[in-house]
Amino acid sequence: MKVLMTAQSQTDPGKHYEIRESSGGQVYCMCPAWRFSQPLLKNGQEYKLPCKHLKALGYTELHRMEVPSWMFRRSK
Ligand SMILES: [Zn+2]
Questions:
Q1: How do the domains of the chain map onto residue ranges?
Q2: What is the reported pLDDT for 10?
Q3: DSSP labels for the chain?
Q4: How much distance in Å is there from the Cα of 9 to the middle of ligand 1?
Q5: Are 50 and 65 in contact (CB under 8 A)?
Q6: pLDDT by residue (tens digit) across 7-51?
Q7: Which of 24, 31, 50, 60 could form a disulfide with 17 if both were Cys (CB 3.0 to 4.6 A apart)?
Q8: Are strands 40-42 and 45-48 parallel, antiparallel or unpaired?
């Protein structure tokens, strides 16, 4: 895991969110807006559209951000 970028919260200047890349190449954001947004499902793969922080890194709605499995507890 490596940190690609650190973004300051606009609502709480004392908070920072890390945009990270996992060892598997998944890029994800630690901000609540992204973490708690509902993931979409396509071909059995959960993904999310990029948040504003990920967009700042150049990702657009055309990118489907894979959701790291550890990030969500889901009932199966
Ligand atoms: Zn974010």
A1: 2-67
A2: 84
A3: -EEEEEEE-SS-TT-EEEEEE-TTS-EEE-SHHHHTSPPEEETTEEEE---HHHHHTT--TT--EEPPGGG-----
A4: 9
A5: yes
A6: 998 888 899 999 999 988 889 999 999 998 888 988 888 889 999
A7: 31
A8: antiparallel
74 CA → ligand 1 middle, Å: 21
Residue 76 Cα to ligand 1 middle (Å):
27
Interacting residues of 48 by C-beta distance below 8 A, sequence separation 6+: 34, 37, 39, 40, 64, 65, 67
Task: Say how many Å lie between the CA of residue 64 and the centre of ligand 1.
Answer: 14
Distance 53 CA to ligand 1 centre (A): 4
Query: Which residue type occupies 61?
Result: E
Distance 59 CA to ligand 1 centre (A): 11
